[in-house]
Amino acid sequence: MKSAYGLKIPEPDAELTRVGPGTPCGELMRRYWQPVCLSADLVDLPKAVRILGEDLVAFRDGQGRAGLLFYRCSHRATSLEYGRVEARGLRCCYHGWLYDVEGNVLEMPLEPLNNPILKHIQHPCYPVREFAGLVFAYLGPLEKIPQFPLYDVWQKSGGSLTARMGPRVGGPVNCNWLQAEENLMDALHTFWLHTQHSGPQFPSQAYGMNPDELKYEETDMGMRFLLRRKLADGKWWELIWEMIMPLNVHLVYTDEPKTERVQAVTYCVPVDDTHQLGASIRWVPEDGHDQVSGREKLSPAGRHDQSYAYTQRHPDDKEAVEGQGPIALHGLEHLVTSDRGVLMFRGILRAAIDAVRSGKDPKGILRDSAKANFVRTSAGSIVRD
Ligand code: FES
Ligand SMILES: [Fe+2]
Q1: N or C: which end of the chain has fewer CB within 10 A?
Q2: How far is C-alpha 377 from the geometric centre of its chain's CA atoms?
Q3: What are the pLDDT digits (tens) for 215-261?
Q4: 311 near 197, Cβ under 8 Å?
């Protein structure tokens, strides 16, 4: 018997988990465009957002331009979330300073007109880019700004793109981003947690998985897992889930076996070290099949019974992943064969952090204009004879 008396509780892995300014993983995350809110959020009021541990205020001026400003006013540091959206920018509630989307101070109404300070103050802000209903921001050094990645699954005719941002259905919210995303490369848990333990939380063909059918591999843009298994009718099913750098972007298929590419790019947005949100852009055909996830199909409105006892009897990713704690403690783990995807995930992340530390571009940065910003993906499901 090993007594728990005197058990040493380790510190979290600060390098891989901390996302605030100046932290190793935080600096890596800041080299890529990240979603901050929905375009539809930017209406007549400013929107307070928190991302990577930074508090910011997003707004859209009267000319339709989106901006993302540091939330404290450059005058006496009150929050700009109480400001007024105007034709030329965002006006602070306290003494009326007016900022445009690039942080220029356009007016200081309580100052003499010729006060030269107006020209000398630049309010901190970030570049933004709107795409398909999501507002993305680049929070890194301006000289390192990369191209905005455009994924192949978005560039199809005969349909349109739809954006979503908020808590994930059944997924974790109140914990570190890393444990939520490496959970996707811990593919075998699907065949325990979501089937044997809690009953079917995904389509039934996922039952009875053999660990040897799974393969993980590193790709140019991140990593992926591939599964190949024989179905009851003798056909072969190939399934691919894909992670894109900085490994908080994923393309995941959770429906019945059939031949179909994943049509949604999903982001895990680190709010701070212990909170996250989901965001996605999904291609929806004009007529025909809208690919909602298998999970949403089984439980379209989320979980009906929210009681603690129900979550104990039927835990989901939310319980398993948040159950690892606000920030998972790697020092308590004993990683085994089935964790090889998790090990690969952490190794790729560490290499990318090292690249940033040594002044290089990390994996998955698009800068070569000859290749443009087109990203080919492979995630989906194939059934063949
Ligand atoms: S604090 Fe914003 S204008 Fe004075
Ligand atoms: Fe899961």
Answers
A1: N
A2: 17
A3: 999 999 999 999 998 888 999 999 999 999 999 999 999 888 999 99
A4: no
Regarding the beta carbon of 110 and ligand 1, being less than 6 Å apart is answered: no
Q: Does ligand 1 come within 6 angstroms of the Cβ of 94?
A: yes
Q: Which of 308-311's residues contact partners 24+ apart within 8 Å by CB, and which partners?
A: none
126 C-alpha to center of ligand 1: Å?
A: 20
User: In this structure, is residue 18 part of a structural domain?
Assistant: no
- Count of domains in the chain? 2
Q: Is the pLDDT of residue 101 over 70?
A: yes
Ligand at minimal distance from the CA of 201 is: 2
pLDDT digits (tens, 9 = 90+) for 322-350: 999 999 999 999 999 999 999 999 999 99
Let me know the angle formed at the C-alpha of 66 by 78 and 32, rounded to the nearest 5 degrees. Answer: 95
What are 174's two structure tokens?
Answer: 């109140």
Look up the CATH number of the domain holding residue 371.
3.90.380
In this structure, are residues 99 and 90 in contact, taking their beta carbons and an 8 Å threshold? Answer: yes
Identify whether residues 112 and 195 lie together within a single domain. Answer: no
Please check the confidence at residue 70 and state whether its pLDDT lies above 60: yes
Check: CB of residue 239 under 8 Å from CB of residue 255: no
- Indicate the burial class of 4 (C-beta count within 10 angstroms; 0-12, 13-18, 19 or more): exposed
Distance CA(94)–CA(77), nearest Å, equals 9
Residue 300, pLDDT above cutoff 60: no
Q: Whose CA is nearest to atom 4 of ligand 1?
A: 95
Q: Are strands 260-261 and 275-285 parallel, antiparallel or unpaired?
A: unpaired
Does residue 383 sit in helix, strand or coil?
Answer: strand
166 and 133 together in one domain: no
Lowest mean pLDDT of 57-61, 67-71, 118-122, name the range: 118-122
User: Could you tell me if the CB of 76 is within 6 A of ligand 1?
Assistant: yes
Pairwise CA distance, residues 101 & 123, whole Å: 10
Per cent of the chain over pLDDT 70 is 94
User: How far, in Å, CA of 15 to CA of 25, rounded?
Assistant: 6
Task: Reduce the DSSP state of residue 11 to 3 states and report it.
Answer: coil
Whether residues 170 and 310 fall in one domain: yes
CB 293 within 8 A of CB 183: no
Q: Which two tokens stand for residue 1?
A: 């018997």
Would you give the DSSP letter of residue 72? B
Domain encompassing residue 103 = 39-137
Indicate if 119 and 252 belong to the same structural domain.
no
| CATH number, residue 51 | 2.102.10.10
